[in-house]
Give the backbone structure.
Amino acid sequence: MYHTIIIVGNLGRDPEMRYTPSGQAVTNLSVATSRQYTGSDGQQVKETIWFRVSVWGKQAETCSQYLRKGRSVLIEGRLVPDPKTGGPRIWQGQNGPGASYEVSANTVRFLGRSEEEGGFQAGSYSGAPAPAGDEDIPF
């Protein structure tokens, strides 16, 4: 069996990188996805879901170096369930209970720059070198 999840969202804070005792780099990202819709009562509803993302190896180092709070990213990975519940991690915050979903990233794509950096730049890093000739693609 196999599952994958794709998330497109914004970083809620700067990445946090550390090294495991064996020397493996791991970077933790906090990614928010949002959507807005009109509820059955005609009111606008804003919904935000938070994901805690772990990125490993060389990709973790690259994310730590180039990503900052507010940056848009696309994450491809797998859900990691809470060992106690088998679902999202439940926590108690100042405004009541909350939940966050844990994701282990396979690929992180940098979708754009934050407003502070100006402009837009698409890029990605999946741990493998980019194929030659990518610059010639017209779209």
